[in-house]
Amino acid sequence: CCTIDWFTQWPTEALLSVSNEFFADVDIGVTDEVKESLSVFCEVIHTSVSNMSDRFFAELRRNVYTTPTSYLELINLYLSMLNDKRKQLCASRDRVANVLRSFSRQMTWLPVWKLS
Questions:
Q1: Rounded to an integer, what distance in angstroms lies between the CA atom of residue 45 and that of residue 43?
Q2: Neighbour tally for 26: CB within 10 Å
Q3: pLDDT band at 107 (very low <50, low <70, confident <90, very high)
Q4: Each residue of 19-54: pLDDT tens digit?
Q5: Beta-carbon count within 10 A of 39 CB
Q6: What is the CB neighbour count within 10 angstroms for residue 74?
Q7: Hey, what long-range contacts does 42-46 have (CB within 8 A, 24 or more apart)?
Q8: How far apart are CA 99 and CA 54, in angstroms?
Q9: Neighbouring residues of 47: CB distance < 8 A, sequence distance ≥ 6
Q10: CA atoms within 13 A on the CB side of 115
Q11: Burial group, residue 55, by CB count within 10 angstroms (0-12, 13-18, 19+)
Q12: CA distance 1 to 79
């Protein structure tokens, strides 16, 4: 019986290129410099997980594979979490705005109540 190792690592340049393409296509509300930093961060995370999986194999003889698909899932997870957090932030902002509007209306009625 033989096995074929289909899990070859992508070079650093390829990882950066893929993440740059993902972040370039999506409006995440940041500058190009920040997008570049996010790309480098994703590459560092993927590479460090690969290194730790090698260490895990050396110590426990158990394989953990980091594949190109797992890298794409990392980027998609980041974008998904960013979208969720934006929705939460917008909902919180709207709640605060409603409270401030209500408070403002009550403050305009306060002099009328004092005169009564």
A1: 5
A2: 13
A3: confident
A4: 999 998 888 888 889 999 999 999 999 999 999 999
A5: 21
A6: 17
A7: 42/15, 42/71, 42/74, 42/75, 42/78, 43/12, 43/15, 43/16, 43/19, 45/74, 46/15, 46/70, 46/71, 46/74
A8: 53
A9: 12, 15
A10: 5
A11: exposed
A12: 41
Q: Judge whether 65 and 3 are in contact, CB under 8 Å.
A: no
Token pair 């994703």 is at which residue?
Answer: 42
Q: What is the pLDDT of residue 104?
A: 86
Residues 71, 49: contact at Cβ < 8 Å?
Answer: no
Tokens of 116: 């009564």
Structure tokens at 43: 């590459």
Q: How many beta carbons lie within 10 A of that of residue 101, not counting itself? A: 10
